[in-house]
């Protein structure tokens, strides 16, 4: 089988239990995902609230409220300023995760999470009290700074803390927290809109200000979290690291794992410039995956649903509350389906989930595209839509969302965080987060314009990428299930495609050493 099914030879089998401590530590750290999720989920709903549009984006409000069923439904939300509101955050996150990589390496993963929570809290408050578009966007920028810090540190924290046999499931608690954040935000939008529809600006202020709650969770959580053994060793705190590892693994002897962590850290210390090191041939597989995995994760088109499900449902003729309610259904499916991945990832591996999810999303995107072409054509004028059509569409979207939730969603964070060796881990993770943010930004920014211009073709556009990314995984991704994180190098050495990069480099190094003798 191309690329997969490689059992790492000489693999270690570190002893250790699935302790309560490891579970609670990972649970608290995963709170970092809540802030990201809340934010992902809140903007779509807020931008479909009429009072919010009237207050900040009156032109969009006029355009969409005057659009009748006979006007082009694909284009009624097309506004650059409106999408800038959603997407400005991701630009800020992109910048901040680059700074976060230096902080995580020098001061540890925990301090970075704390900084993330504080920045996010400030952004939430700015948004809740916003009385101008400027203040609104400034708030979004601070939220973005916070997310950049959290997303840079939390996945690494989880992968380093978890015993390797449960790393997949424990890391996926980050994604689970993201889906909870999205779901809670959707619920908040729905309930606040329902209850405070006639109370002026209260509904959207509560929705946006609600982001302060997950921010407080992560701030408090980070006070109680220990730093990871890997990070403590990296900063010369060996004794503390060993004590921490003993507690996390729940056994009396962690010497083998500890010595390997020290060895990895010694090797890492030789690398003074992680950024330029990452560009050398030896790290080609990690660099390729740090770029392709987040890019492809976004090119699944999932965020079109996350951000714009209410807008999308409104486009196909649902009312305002019905749209928010349908978006809640898709968010619920997103949350529940993540458990499938948590249950299966350490048993069946990463590749099979990536491939199955990819096929499922491909098929549903093609069918949704076809259904939209049939009903909306190129004029975007569907006439009356039947209840059956609307229900089928929601069902198809749910199947698509489930596919994402057990494949590219969680794996998009898990795989990068486990394949980078310590010496370049922080830098590579920063690339992973920034590429994710660039693509999240691009999709958030251009979606409404794409829908307006590409019409139903938008769904075929994403299905094309789903096909490409599934082929990419099939051919190039080795299986990383059950491989200790600091032993991951072996996986590349045994891979039919990547071995020439990794092994050849070793050969050159050995040749040079021989010449020097
Ligand atoms: C992605 C987000 C997406 C979310 C949906 C995350 O893994 O990074 O962009 O909105 O999953 O659950």
Q: Approximately how much beta-strand content do the residues carry?
A: under 5%
Share in helix: over 70%
Order of helices and strands: HHHHHHHHHHHHHHHHHHHHHHHH
Mean pLDDT across every amino acid position? 86
Report how far the terminal alpha carbons are from each other.
42 Å
Radius of gyration: 23 Å
Bound ions, cofactors and other small molecules, one mention each:
beta-D-glucopyranose
- What does the largest sheet look like? none
Instruction: Write down how many β-strands occur, each being a DSSP E stretch of 2 or more residues.
Output: 0
Overall SS class: mainly alpha
Helix segment tally: 24
What is the molecular shape?
A: globular
In brief, what are we looking at here?
This protein is mainly α and 517 residues long.
How would you characterize the overall build of this protein?
With 517 residues, the chain is mostly helical. The chain contains 24 helices and no strands. The chain has helices at 20-30, 32-46, 50-56, 58-66, 80-107, 109-128, 133-161, 167-196, 202-209, 212-224, 229-234, 238-249, 255-269, 274-278, 284-299, 302-315, 320-348, 350-376, 387-405, 408-419, 422-454, 457-476, 489-493, 499-516. α7 runs antiparallel to α8 (167-196) and α8 packs antiparallel against α17 (320-348). The longest helix is centred in the C-terminal third of the chain and has 33 residues, at 422-454. The radius of gyration is 23 Å and the shape is globular. The chain starts with 19 loop residues before the first helix and ends with a helix. 55% of the residues are buried. The model is unreliable at 1-10 and 507-517 (pLDDT under 50). The protein binds beta-D-glucopyranose (BGC). Beta-D-glucopyranose (BGC) is lined by residues 40, 175, 178-179, 182, 297, 302-303, 306, 334, 409, 412-413, 436, 440.
């Amino acid at each position: 089988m191309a690329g997969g099914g490689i059992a790492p030879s000489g693999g270690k089998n570190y002893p250790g239990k699935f302790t309560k401590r490891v579970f609670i530590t990972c649970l608290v750290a995963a709170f970092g995902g809540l802030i990201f999720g809340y934010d992902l989920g809140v903007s779509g709903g807020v931008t479909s609230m009429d009072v919010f549009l009237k207050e900040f984006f009156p032109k969009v409000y006029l355009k969409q409220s005057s659009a009748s069923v006979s006007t082009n439904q694909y284009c009624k939300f097309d506004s650059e300023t409106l999408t800038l509101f959603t997407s400005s955050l991701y630009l800020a996150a992109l910048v901040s995760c680059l700074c976060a990589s230096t902080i995580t390496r020098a001061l540890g993963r925990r301090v970075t999470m704390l900084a993330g929570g504080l920045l996010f809290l400030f952004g939430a408050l700015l948004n809740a009290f916003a009385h101008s578009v400027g203040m609104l966007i400034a708030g979004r920028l601070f939220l973005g700074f916070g997310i950049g810090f959290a997303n840079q540190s939390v996945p690494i924290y989880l992968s380093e803390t978890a015993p390797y046999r449960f790393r997949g499931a424990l890391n996926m608690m980050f994604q689970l927290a993201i889906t909870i954040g999205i779901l809670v935000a959707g619920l908040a939008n729905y309930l606040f809109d329902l209850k405070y529809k006639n109370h002026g600006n209260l509904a959207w202020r509560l929705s946006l200000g609600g982001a302060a709650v997950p921010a407080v969770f992560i701030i408090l959580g980070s006070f109680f979290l220990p730093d990871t053994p890997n990070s403590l060793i990296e900063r010369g705190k060996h004794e503390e690291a060993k004590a921490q590892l003993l507690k996390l693994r729940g056994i009396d002897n962690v010497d083998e794992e500890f010595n390997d962590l020290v060895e990895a850290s010694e090797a890492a210390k030789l690398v003074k410039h992680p950024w330029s090191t990452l560009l050398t041939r030896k790290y080609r597989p990690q660099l390729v995956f740090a770029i392709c995995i987040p890019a492809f994760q976004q090119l699944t088109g999932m965020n079109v649903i996350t951000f714009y499900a209410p807008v999308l449902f409104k486009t196909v003729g649902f009312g305002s509350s019905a749209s928010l309610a349908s978006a809640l259904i898709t968010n619920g499916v997103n949350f529940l389906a993540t458990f499938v991945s948590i249950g299966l990832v350490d048993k069946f591996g990463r590749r099979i989930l990536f491939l199955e999810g990819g096929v499922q999303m491909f098929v549903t995107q093609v069918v949704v595209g076809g259904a939209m072409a049939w009903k909306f054509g190129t004029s975007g004028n569907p006439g009356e839509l039947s209840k059956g059509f609307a229900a089928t569409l929601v069902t198809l979207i749910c199947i698509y969302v489930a596919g994402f939730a057990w494949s590219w969603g969680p794996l998009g964070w898990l795989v990068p965080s486990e394949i980078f060796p310590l010496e370049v881990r922080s830098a590579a993770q920063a690339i992973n987060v920034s590429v994710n943010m660039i693509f999240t930004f691009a999709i958030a920014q251009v979606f409404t314009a794409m829908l307006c211009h590409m019409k139903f073709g938008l769904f075929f556009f994403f299905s094309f990428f789903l096909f490409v990314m599934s082929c990419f995984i099939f051919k190039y991704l080795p299986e990383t299930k059950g491989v200790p994180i600091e032993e991951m190098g072996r996986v590349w050495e045994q891979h039919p495609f990547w071995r020439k990069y990794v092994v050849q480099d070793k050969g050159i190094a050995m040749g040079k050493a021989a010449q020097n003798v």
